[in-house]
Amino acid sequence: MDATVELLNRDRIPEESKWDLSGLYREAEPWRADFAELEAQVSQYEPLRGSLSKSPDALRACLEFDAGVMRKLETLYTFAHLRNDEDKTHDVHQQNHEKVVGLHSRIMQARSFIAAETMEIPEDKMQEFMETETLTPYKLHLEQMLRFRNHTLSQNEEALLASASDMSRAAQDAFGMLDNADMEFGTVKDEEGRETAITHGNLSSLFQKYDRRVRKETFETFYSAYKKHQYTYAALLSGSVKKDLFYSRARRHGSTREQALFDENIPAEVYDNLIDAVHDNLEPLHKYFRIRKKILGLDELRIYDCNVPLVENFKWNLTYEEAVPKILAALEPLGSDYAAVLKEGLLEKRWVDRYENKGKRSGAYSSGCYDSQPFILMNYRDDDINSLYTLAHEAGHSMHSHFSRSHQPYLYADYTIFVAEVASTFNEALITRYLLSQNPDRDMKIYLTCREIDNFRGTLYRQTMFAEFEKIIHAASQDNQPLTADALRAHYRKLIELYFGAEVVLDDALSLECFRIPHFYFSFYVYKYATGISAAYALADLVLSGGDEALGNYLNFLKSGGSKYPIDLLKGAGIDMTSPEPVGTALKKFAELVDQLETLTS
């Protein structure tokens, strides 16, 4: 699809370029009928209340009913959110999406008694229940639930916390509205002197302009907007941290970080090993900045110089139909079965909604539910190499979901966030390996090497810095230290000085960056990007050098869904994330790439 073509309305996009949702619903009426049926089922939770301790059969009946409700809800939600993302201006799709989100909230309140009531069953009695054949299919599910026994409140208290869920989102929602709707970031004159509005969407491309004036003025104008609103942003971030602290104390956890790690049974040393390993390997990052400064011919390197492509006027053109064979060739080490399923999904079963249209959601993602095929939202561009990588990345998510749902029952089909980025990043690593194997010219080698370096820099180093910032400010809040604008900026300033070192001259305004990171409103989430890329590259090394056994272990990992805790799933694939080794492997790879760049550009 040519980048110069005018943006089309949805109805003008060819059918073969759209995802096929007919496996969910062929038309709106069956969706509305299923919605009404599920809405009527919400009241059927109440008669189950108080029955769970009566017998294994009674407990199983409740768990089966609940699983059936959640499974149907996921199907309804998947169809509604995919339709809504096709065209955000479509009023009916908006309404259906809002309706199913509201139904989700009501269902969560109605089912909130299940965990609390299960916890109240005496341990010896529950042990007898779980030894019966009746509950065999639910044993792991119950074990995972019972882990929370000491952190689950009474039924009334649980219902109260569930009903407060909308209110607890206030800081996050207010941040979203302020940052995405109310904020105006001003304008900058581009290389041709045209006035260009600065947005979140074009910020990255403006920082990649070769005209340094454009980059400098973009940086100063963009952050001047945050400076004007820094006290509001600080209040929102502080409010979000206090919310997390309230819930961690209400559920009797020692800290907010402890609660976040407990959910996926992640040992604290995984988090701490990550930070320590990155601290011990900052020199290759600083060396990269020195190389960048030299290549760009600058007396001093500023933050707005750190994303300029080192290969000027890089040209790329690859249609979607041409991209798929390249992805399949790159992923050949994963075997013929993997390739066959993926080829069919990308080309014949129409997993992918390929191109941008008016009103379509930006970005890309992989979605779906247990009773559907995977779906990939793309805004593919022929002239952007990132589209190739993004398609391979989302295909990794989709294949992980496909294998999980094909080999696990509903209760254990969903994998956790901790392992969610492994398969996708693994695919990206294979794409770079493949492109470099095709005897590219020097400029292409430099471009691909830089792209890989910047991927590590943004995913491993940057996300670890964010994770360290979260650890610091949540600990400060727990110690009753105020999180004012000045305090938050001071904490952030120390970290950027450490991570960027003496190679980058840091403007005072850069400390305002801590106010614009949406992930800080999903506490202790960002570290999973860094551990994910570390696990992916360690697994890639194993699979590419370990033969059939290593490949089999990796494919079994993809098939395992949520049937084990994430640390145990990765151990089965050959990676122990409780040790510093996987992160060390990724950091070693980064250092090698920097050395390669130095050689290529010398």
SSE map:
Layout: H1 28-41, H2 56-86, H3 91-110, H4 113-119, H5 123-130, H6 139-146, H7 155-163, H8 165-168, H9 170-182, E1 187-189, E2 195-197, H10 200-206, H11 212-228, H12 230-250, H13 256-263, H14 268-279, H15 283-296, E3 301-302, H16 320-330, H17 336-348, E4 352-353, E5 365-367, E6 375-377, H18 385-407, H19 417-420, H20 422-437, H21 442-478, H22 485-500, E7 504-505, H23 527-559, H24 566-573, H25 581-601
Parallel strand pairs: 3-7, 4-6
Antiparallel strand pairs: 1-2, 5-6
Helix pairs in contact: 1-2, 2-3, 4-7, 9-12, 12-21, 14-21, 15-25, 16-17, 16-20, 18-20, 20-21, 20-23, 21-22, 21-23, 21-25, 23-24, 23-25
Could you walk me through the main structural features you see in this protein, from its secondary elements to its overall organization?
With 602 residues, the protein is mainly α. Among the domains are: 21-168, Butyryl-CoA Dehydrogenase, subunit A, domain 3 (Up-down Bundle); 184-228, putative peptidase helix hairpin domain like (Helix Hairpins). The chain contains 25 helices and 7 strands. It has helices spanning 28-41, 56-86, 91-110, 113-119, 123-130, 139-146, 155-163, 165-168, 170-182, 200-206, 212-228, 230-250, 256-263, 268-279, 283-296, 320-330, 336-348, 385-407, 417-420, 422-437, 442-478, 485-500, 527-559, 566-573, 581-601, and strands at residues 187-189, 195-197, 301-302, 352-353, 365-367, 375-377, 504-505. Residues 1-5 have low confidence and may be disordered.
